[in-house]
TrEMBL record:
<comment type="function">
    <text>Required for the transposition of the insertion element.</text>
</comment>
<keyword id="KW-0233">DNA recombination</keyword>
<dbReference type="GO" id="GO:0006313">
    <property type="term" value="P:DNA transposition"/>
</dbReference>
<protein>
    <recommendedName>
        <fullName>Mutator family transposase</fullName>
    </recommendedName>
</protein>
<dbReference type="GO" id="GO:0003677">
    <property type="term" value="F:DNA binding"/>
</dbReference>
<keyword id="KW-0238">DNA-binding</keyword>
<comment type="similarity">
    <text>Belongs to the transposase mutator family.</text>
</comment>
<dbReference type="Pfam" id="PF00872">
    <property type="entry name" value="Transposase_mut"/>
</dbReference>
<keyword id="KW-0814">Transposable element</keyword>
<dbReference type="GO" id="GO:0004803">
    <property type="term" value="F:transposase activity"/>
</dbReference>
<keyword id="KW-0815">Transposition</keyword>
<dbReference type="InterPro" id="IPR001207">
    <property type="entry name" value="Transposase_mutator"/>
</dbReference>
Amino acid sequence: MEKTEGAKFWLQILTDLRNRGVEDILIACVDGLKGFPETIVSVFPKAQVQPCIVPMVRNSLKWVSYKQKKELMIDLKAIYKSPSEEIAKKSLDDFSTKWDSQYPMISKSWRNNWESVIPFLAYPPN
């Protein structure tokens, strides 16, 4: 991404899309570009903004020992690949039970960011 591709740049792009006939978007998955979620909603007020899950997963794995990463990753996937919010919450509770003694900051981070993690769970898996 070029240095000029900030929220103002994307405001122009989104406005152009709207002017060319795009009436609305259901969901937008965004990275950490500051101001981008607000920019999307300013042009498409009904859009749900979903932060990209990849940085959260990477951050969760940052402090995990190499030997445990594969197993822990399987348990994390059970959360964000759940077919519903209810099942995702249960998977997070199971994750906490299993891993909080070693890595309490992981489930705490997921709980603190839960409202930004779950929007896509409102849609069917396919």
